[in-house]
Amino acid sequence: MDERKKDLLKHLPKIDELLLALEKKGAFSQNGRDYLVAASRAVVEELREAILASPGNMTEMPRLDDVAGKVEERLTAMHRFRLRKVVNATGVVLHTNLGRSPLCGDALERLMEVAGSYSNLEYDLEKGERGLRYSHVRELLCLLSGAEEALVVNNNAAAVLLVLDTLARGREAIVSRGELVEIGGEFRIPDIMEKSGAILREVGTTNRTRQGDYERAVSERTGLIMKVHTSNFRIVGFTEEVSLEALVSLGKAYGIPVMDDLGSGCMIDLASYGLGREPTVRSVMNSGVDVATISGDKLLGGPQAGIILGKKEIMADVMRNPLNRALRIDKLTLAALEGTLVQYLNPQNAVRAIRTLHSLTEPLPVTAKRAKRLAAVLRRAGIEGLEITLKKGFSAVGGGALPMQEIETMLVAMRYDGLSSVRLEERLRCLDVPVIARIDGGEVLLDVRTVDDGEFPLIRDGMKIIAGRSFEHAATLLTS
Ligand SMILES: *Cc1c(COP(=O)(O)O)cnc(C)c1O
């Protein structure tokens, strides 16, 4: 090792010295000693590595005060929340990676009230004794869906697991090969079935499954006939599937329960808003199925949850299953779910109040008008080199619902001098309030269908910051 390296290493700040410097800076008021020590060690270690790697870049040891500043910066970063609000300008309404459904105002209010205080979560106020946590949403769910009984768990995957474990553990669950879907996050229906201890009995082929296929598979080993809503893909062309009604009659004939894993959980008729036909929860329950499972945060527009609806007898078994305890819903989710469900007592109100439904059903002229407004807001920011145009395009439902549905939209397309579209998209994503956008060739596209008017200033301010930074960057390049 050369002498200079050795010399630099010898002068690395001592942790005690750093702590003293940090104390003078007042860092102890924000952070415990242990974390200051850990951050100090990490920063000194980085310095050591830097010296060993390329001593040429360092002629002398940085001042103690500067190193302490680095430690402080590190801890300040720790204080910043990592789970943050983002602006979803992708136009994908149910974006699983961006948290699926934003909650409506009432759901948020319920959440705040219940979360910040004690509640009657499992307490029957009339009887003054222990109650059931599901009781708070049970009546609403039964009323809205027509189900006899309702139960909520952590998410729909948990709901499927719980139902299968209850009805088909060690028995066969008959399911069409065309419905063995992957839900996302590499969560596959066959894998959940296996975990539940149900024996998967595949029938039919990928594109065609007939009633006879189900019928031939029925035996004394059969525990369940299962239908899975193929929510995130479509097989088109030469296809055939057996209707839920036909499966229900088959189940009745052989005394086998029939389950529909519906997923999307649509409570209103979307076709009347010009969207494709997605089975409503009520129509599924009307078909006579014994049990159905739906997601809380897809088309329902509420919090992550799994809703199980079904016949009284079967539901009693599902509720008694010890697994239910492990998959149980928490009080925050329940509060938000209740706040969401009440909106549906007036479906028109639900479409207004629930952002997911609002975004999906916003008529194109309204979206186009809002796109114009965003374009105007951005133009008025007076950012030199920023070119804004409006373009026709399509939004997507996402989140495993209406996979073929393209919703017409108006996009705000941005080009910015000196930053490629790839760079601009990246800068937008790295803002304090990240803006998630799409790229199309040389342009960054913002789809206002998933952007609230109240978020327009965030995009404008974000662009100002990006413009300011690239200006500074250009200036330093010029002077150096
Ligand atoms: C989305 C979906 C699930 C999983 O629901 P989560 O709430 O994400 O766990 C299961 N089945 C179907 C058919 C789905 O669409």
**Which homologous superfamily in CATH is the superfamily of the largest domain?**
Type I PLP-dependent aspartate aminotransferase-like (Major domain)
* Outline: globular
Strand content: 15-25%
Oligomeric grouping of the chains:
single chain
What class, by secondary structure content?
Answer: alpha/beta
State the domain count: 3
* Tally of contiguous helical segments: 19
Strand order of the largest sheet: 5-13-12-11-10-6-9
How can the largest sheet be summarized? 7 strands, mixed
Distinct ligands: pyridoxal-5'-phosphate
Q: Report the uncertain regions.
A: none
The rounded Rg comes to 28 Å
CATH fold annotation of the largest domain: Aspartate Aminotransferase, domain 2
Query: Helical amount among residues, as a percent range?
Result: 40-55%
Kindly, what is the distance between the CA atoms of the first and last residues, rounded to a whole number of angstroms?
32 Å
CATH top-level class of the largest domain: Alpha Beta
Q: Number of DSSP strands? A: 18
Provide the residue-averaged pLDDT: 92
Please tell me the CATH architecture of the largest domain by its name: 3-Layer(aba) Sandwich
Summarize the structure.
This protein is of the alpha/beta class and 480 residues long. The chain is 44% helix and 18% strand.
